[in-house]
Every structure is written in structure tokens, then in C-alpha cells.
Specification:
The complex is a heterodimer of chains A (117) and B (110).
Chain A (H helix, E strand, L loop, with lengths): L2 E5 L2 E3 L5 E8 L7 E7 L5 E7 L6 E3 L7 E6 L4 E6 L8 E8 L4 E4 L3 E5 L2
Parallel strand pairs in A: 2-11
Antiparallel strand pairs in A: 1-3, 3-8, 4-5, 4-9, 5-6, 7-8, 9-10, 9-11
Chain B lengths: L8 E4 L5 E6 L10 E6 L6 E4 L13 E6 L2 E6 L8 E9 L4 E4 L3 E5 L1
Parallel strand pairs in B: 1-9
Antiparallel strand pairs in B: 2-6, 3-4, 3-7, 5-6, 7-8, 7-9
The chains are: A mainly beta (117), B mainly beta (110).
Chain lengths: 117, 110
């Protein structure tokens, strides 16, 4: 069974940083593309970033480009999202997901990031 | 404003067939696969359709996807109360070099 468990969310001040982690199990992590998707309160799903199996190819939504960095540690079956220069509009539930090169297949339960002073 | 457009709401009665549309452009839906997700508040989104019309194992055949040109549709037949949820389409966008989700459609089972 595919399991994706996000952690690292919480309260951070505007301009601050946070690193999200996603521990994966139940599938062949080292061959999988991984994605981050977020959902602000009362809003829809928004794709954030993706990373390929060996970590060489990374892609970002324009709204986070230059501020967020996706990475992975295949030895630990974990994908990360380093979020810097956080803004109020980054407030959202962040979902980690396993997928293909374009979009997610299986999703975690999400972790809440609150950006507020 | 999403680059991929869905109606904000849809409704149907139990047993009915409902269709949710997803409109895009040549550089997203027109040239790439479409994916459909079901999302209940407080839960993980669930993949219903991938590669425009493929159904993952475990998804009932009441759910089907199709694509024509720059538009796509999700059809739900034999509607049930447990189908009440938000539904999202998504596709890769060649112009943005990013994936994009539609704004979502809230399905109400009357």
C-alpha cells in the first residue's frame, strides 16, 4: 500500500522559512516522480513543484519559483520542499504525491503551513 | 483565474448520470493528457482518471473520462450520495512548463 506522510508544517512569520518532508513507502520510490500540490483555505488545488526519480529535473509553479526548492533523498525514501521568503498567500495545506512526469497519482494527507505575524 | 476552466458547481439525483466539463487550450489539454481527481474536505485527493481516459485499479467503472480537442469531460453514471465531493481536472501546460489544475467543481447529490 502506498503511504505518503508529510511533516514539517506549522506557523511561520512572513519572510521566514520552513522545510516540509514527505516519507514514502509501499512503492518503488527511487523510480518515481514526486510532486507537491497545495490548497489554500476555501480554494482549489494548485500544483507547486515536481522532481524526477534521480533529482536532476525539477520544475516549479511561477508563484513559488526562486523561493521554494524541491529535493529528494532516495536512500531515505523522502522528498523535501524547502520554502523560503514565505508570504501570507503561501498559507495552505501542502500535499506530497507520487505520480508520473506530469501529475500526481497517490497523495498524502497533507500538512498545514500558516504564514502569519 | 485558472488557465483550465471548470463549472463551479454541478448537481444530480441518485441514479442519474452527470458530466463535468474542463475547458483549456491547445498548449495544455489540446496537447497533453488530462487527469481527474475527487476531493473530500479534510482527506487526501483521489485520482479517478489518468491519461485522459484510463481508470486506476479500484475506481468504479461508473467514472469515465474523455477528451476532444481542447476540452475534456468526466462522466459519473449511477450517481450515489457518496459521490458528493469536489472534482478537479488537471493537465500539463506547455506554455507555463508546469501542471495546472482547474478551479474545481462541487458536485451535489440532491
Amino acid at each position: 500500500e502506498v503511504q505518503l506522510v508529510e511533516s514539517g508544517g506549522g506557523l511561520v512569520q512572513p519572510g521566514g522559512s520552513l522545510r516540509l518532508s514527505c516519507a514514502a513507502s509501499g512503492f518503488n520510490f527511487i523510480t518515481s516522480w514526486m510532486h507537491w500540490v497545495r490548497q489554500a483555505p476555501g480554494k482549489g488545488l494548485v500544483w507547486v513543484s515536481r522532481i524526477n526519480s534521480n533529482g536532476v529535473t525539477t520544475t516549479y509553479a511561477d508563484s513559488v519559483k526562486g523561493r521554494f526548492t524541491i529535493s529528494r533523498d532516495n536512500a531515505k525514501n523522502t522528498v523535501y520542499l524547502q520554502m523560503d521568503s514565505l508570504r501570507a498567500d503561501d498559507l495552505a495545506v501542502y500535499y506530497c504525491a507520487r505520480g508520473d512526469a506530469w501529475l500526481p497519482y497517490s497523495w498524502g494527507q497533507g500538512t498545514l503551513v500558516i504564514v502569519s505575524s | 483565474q485558472s488557465v483550465v476552466t471548470q463549472p463551479p458547481s454541478a448537481s444530480g439525483t441518485p441514479g442519474q448520470r452527470v458530466t463535468i466539463s474542463c475547458a483549456g487550450a491547445n498548449f495544455n489539454i489540446g496537447s497533453n493528457y488530462v487527469y481527474w481527481y475527487q476531493h473530500l474536505p479534510g482527506t487526501a485527493p483521489k485520482l479517478l482518471i489518468y491519461k485522459s481516459s484510463e481508470r486506476p485499479a479500484g475506481v468504479p467503472d461508473r467514472f469515465s473520462g474523455s477528451k476532444s480537442g481542447t476540452s475534456a469531460s468526466l462522466a459519473i453514471s449511477e450517481l450515489r450520495s457518496e459521490d458528493e465531493a469536489h472534482y478537479y481536472c488537471a493537465a500539463w501546460d506547455d506554455r507555463l512548463s508546469a501542471s495546472v489544475f482547474g478551479g474545481g467543481t462541487k458536485l451535489t447529490v440532491l
